[in-house]
Each structure stands twice: as structure tokens, then as C-alpha cells.
């Protein structure tokens, strides 16, 4: 589906948004009090006219002091009756850009397999808000959510390639794909090893947009389904593995945001997606195998379920050969990150203090929070096994997100700056602007930080 604003019209209905300590609109009359309206978060009071027809509504925003992460409060207004609405007044402390984007994000529904979107409540874009920019961000987020929510039966590596080609065509980007046996011929042994047991061939999708300015390369993990390989996941852990391409989905959504908003101007953008399915078959990689990598480092596979860092490693080594000014990896990589920070706050790793501060500050500013974690050098020994250069799954289980980041950093050498995001890509329970299901994380934070990260 496509996010949209309503056209300005005299026929739109007024919507008042109020914090719980705000006075009610003066012309609301006695009806809100009689209806028990307390302006609790998400509470809606419909206002009847003298003839009984709907004349407007009041939306409760809750406690102003406790809004916190729940910044897209206006997304709750999607439960209003279908029709076109305008904000009659914007309460103090509610940013108009956030209000507009919150409304747009709240429009999202995944209806590919069930139901048809019916008429919905639409908002006239508030005065002073850049409507095109808000729509670009929301559209990119919708793309990310649609890709994550689509099951692997309809989104294997081949279908992910088709989606990437369609998006590239939309924004005027160029695409090259290396697939199947060609991965071995062109020296991408890790990508091939992870994906060779699947029905759909592994591939590396390479998208480029722009031909001048700082080079920004985004590498997104595209594991379309992860069984765990021969280290088979239990059923309870496999159930959400259609989301294991959330890094790729977020990278594509971010590309769409940057291109449609105009923020891609003056940049050379490159998106690399190693697209595979980690399956079980007679030719699957085995625990204990030692694999070559594009960079020349050997990797001992001590857990076939730690495959994401393998496919990223080859793609990142390829990207680093071009010495980009900034390289970013996005991946649903470790359960350890969720144990540490939960599903809503993805950690990121960056050795450059100024860049890290810019990313974290931008994330808070645009309500897309991320949290810096350390590339802790004393743990380097944990990723160095006895018989190979690197270990893809250090024993002991401690510091799992950090050791995965350290593993990836070995393949980022050559990039001017590098940041790795260990995202979850899934919203376990509905929240304002974030329905249950696939969700983009870190894209808006990166987008907001890019001017500082690239010196533009």
C-alpha cells in the first residue's frame, strides 16, 4: 500500500490533539466530560453536531512527560472514522513533522494475503511540513515492512533480486547481479557456501545510484530464510526467520528514502545485498568446515547458524576494495543484541567517535533510536580459532554481538568510516506507527546523520 495525505479542502473534519494536562478545545462543549474522556494516550472522543452528524474529534496524547519513545502519537488517530481530517491545533511539544510522519506510518497494513484496504482516515499535511519528504520516508519504511513480512515462499533470493531491480528502476539506479556458480568464479566463496544448499541460487545484488560526491556503501544481510543449516534451529526459533533478510529490506528502504527525498543528490550510493537461503541438503556447509573468503582470510565454521556474518564478509570485502568514504552494514545478526537491548533498541558499532555521536544523536532526534556498543579489542582473540584465521561462532556464548561486529570489522578495512547495525527488524507488539510485524530500524537515523557523516 502507499502512504498518502488528504488534499486540503473545506470539507475536512477538525482533529484536536491534546496532552492529558491540556485544556480541552473551548468549543468541545460538555460532551467529552460526559463521555469520560481523559486524554489518555490513544483515547478518541468523537464530537457530535447538533444534528447528530460527526463534527470533529479529540485525540488524547497521554502524559506529556512520559511520551518518550512513543513520539509518533498521532499514529493512533488511524482508528478515527474514514474520511479526511485536519489538525485544528498542534499542542505544545508535538513536532509537526513527527505528527505528519506518525500519521503516515500508522497507515501501514500488510494485506497481501488477507483482506483489501478499505477507506481510511487521511490527514491534510500540516502547514510548514515538507509533504514530499514525509511521503518519501514513509514509502521507504513501507517497502521495508512489506519485504520483511513476505514469507520465504514468495521471497527467496530470486524474488528479493526482482524486488531490488524494481526499486532500482523506480529511482533510476543501476543493478548488477552475480549468481550461482559465477560467485565462485568471481571470488565470493562465503556467499556461495552459505546459499548453495537452497533451491534458489545464492547471489550478490549490486545497486548503484549517483556518479559524483562522497561514496556511501550500504551492505544489507539478505538471508531470505534461515533454518540454521546443519546446526538446525528448533521450531520455536525458526518461526520468524523470514525476517532474516531485514538488513537487506532496511537497506532497500533507506535507498528509496534517500532517492525520493532528494537526499541522495551529491552522493555516490551503493547497496550490496548478499541474497541467500540457509538450507539443509547434502551439499550444505558443515560444522568444522574451513572456508576461504574473498579477502583471503580463512574461516572455521563452528556453527552453520552463524551464517549472516559469512555472507556479509564477502560483500563487505568487495565493497572495501573501492575504498568508500562510509560503509554501513545492516543485519539481523545476533540474539545477543536482543538479550542486551531488547527488540526496540538496536546496537551499533563505530570506531569513529564523531560519527558515532552523530548517528546516536540523529536517531534520538528522529525517533529512531540506536545505541552505541564497543568494538572491544580485547575480545579479538575470541574470534581467532586454532586452525584458521577466523572463527564464525566463538565458544562460550559471551559478548556475541560484539564478537560478530569484530568479525565483520576485519572485512571493512579500506573504508574511510565503518558502522555496523545489529537490528532486529521485527515489532513484537503493536505501538504507535509500528504495527506488529516487520519494521525498519536505523534507516531514519542514518538518513538524518548522513550530512555530518559525509561532510555535505
TrEMBL record:
One of its GO terms (cellular component) is cytoplasm. Keywords: Aminopeptidase, Hydrolase, Manganese, Protease. Gene3D superfamilies: Leucine Aminopeptidase, subunit E, domain 1 (3.40.220.10), Zn peptidases (3.40.630.10). CDD domains: Peptidase_M17 (cd00433). It comes from the Bacteria. Residues 303-310 form the Cytosol aminopeptidase domain. One of its GO terms (biological process) is proteolysis. It holds the Pfam family Peptidase_M17. Signal peptide: none annotated. PANTHER family: LEUCINE AMINOPEPTIDASE-RELATED, PEPTIDASE B. This is Leucyl aminopeptidase family protein. It comes from Paracoccus aestuarii. The lineage of its organism: Bacteria, Pseudomonadati, Pseudomonadota, Alphaproteobacteria, Rhodobacterales.
Amino acid at each position: 500500500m502507499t502512504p498518502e495525505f488528504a488534499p486540503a479542502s473545506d470539507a475536512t473534519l477538525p482533529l484536536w490533539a491534546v496532552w492529558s494536562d491540556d485544556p480541552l478545545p473551548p468549543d468541545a462543549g460538555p460532551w467529552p466530560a460526559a463521555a469520560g474522556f481523559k486524554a489518555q494516550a490513544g483515547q478518541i472522543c468523537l464530537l457530535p453536531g447538533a444534528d447528530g452528524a460527526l463534527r470533529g474529534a479529540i485525540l488524547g496524547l497521554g502524559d506529556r512527560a512520559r511520551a518518550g519513545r512513543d513520539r509518533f502519537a498521532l499514529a493512533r488517530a488511524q482508528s478515527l472514522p474514514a474520511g479526511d481530517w485536519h489538525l485544528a491545533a498542534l499542542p505544545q511539544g508535538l513536532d509537526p513533522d513527527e505528527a505528519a510522519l506518525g500519521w503516515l506510518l500508522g497507515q501501514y497494513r500488510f494485506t497481501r494475503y488477507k483482506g483489501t484496504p478499505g477507506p481510511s482516515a487521511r490527514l491534510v499535511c500540516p502547514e510548514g511540513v515538507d509533504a514530499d519528504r514525509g511521503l518519501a520516508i514513509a514509502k521507504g519504511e513501507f517497502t521495508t515492512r512489506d519485504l520483511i513480512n513476505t514469507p520465504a515462499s514468495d521471497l527467496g533470493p530470486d524474488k528479493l533480486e526482482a524486488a531490488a531491480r524494481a526499486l532500482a528502476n523506480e529511482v533510476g539506479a543501476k543493478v548488477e547481479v552475480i549468481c550461482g556458480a559465477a560467485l565462485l568464479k568471481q571470488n565470493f566463496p562465503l556467499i556461495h557456501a552459505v546459499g548453495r544448499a537452497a533451491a534458489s541460487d545464492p547471489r550478490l545484488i549490486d545497486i548503484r545510484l549517483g556518479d559524483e560526491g562522497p561514496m556511501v556503501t550500504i551492505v544489507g544481510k539478505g538471508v531470505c530464510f534461515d533454518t540454521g543449516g546443519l546446526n538446525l534451529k528448533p521450531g520455536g526459533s525458526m518461526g520468524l526467520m523470514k525476517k532474516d533478510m531485514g538488513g537487506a529490506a532496511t537497506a532497500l528502504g533507506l535507498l528509496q528514502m534517500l532517492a525520493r527525498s532528494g537526499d541522495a543528490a551529491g552522493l555516490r550510493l551503493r547497496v550490496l545485498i548478499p541474497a541467500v537461503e540457509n538450507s539443509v541438503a547434502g551439499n550444505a556447509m558443515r560444522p568444522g568446515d574451513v572456508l576461504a573468503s574473498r579477502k583471503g582470510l580463512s574461516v572455521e565454521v563452528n556453527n552453520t547458524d552463524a551464517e549472516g556474518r559469512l555472507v556479509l564478509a564477502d560483500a563487505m570485502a568487495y565493497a572495501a576494495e573501492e575504498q568508500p568514504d562510509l560503509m554501513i552494514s545492516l543485519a539481523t545478526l545476533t540474539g545477543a543484541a536482543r538479550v542486551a537491548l531488547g527488540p526496540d533498541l538496536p546496537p551499533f558499532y563505530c570506531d569513529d567517535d564523531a560519527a558515532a555521536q552523530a548517528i546516536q544523536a540523529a536517531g534520538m532526534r528522529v525517533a529512531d533510536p540506536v545505541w552505541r556498543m564497543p568494538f572491544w579489542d580485547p575480545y579479538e582473540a575470541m574470534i581467532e580459532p586454532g586452525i584458521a584465521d577466523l572463527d564464525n561462532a566463538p565458544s562460550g556464548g559471551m559478548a556475541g554481538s560484539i564478537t560478530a561486529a569484530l568479525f565483520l570489522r576485519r572485512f571493512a578495512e579500506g573504508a574511510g568510516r565503518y558502522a555496523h547495525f545489529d537490528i532486529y527488524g521485527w515489532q513484537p507488539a503493536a505501538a504507535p506507527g509500528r504495527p506488529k510485524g516487520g519494521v525498519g530500524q536505523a534507516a531514519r537515523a542514518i538518513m538524518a546523520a548522513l550530512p555530518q557523516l559525509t561532510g555535505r
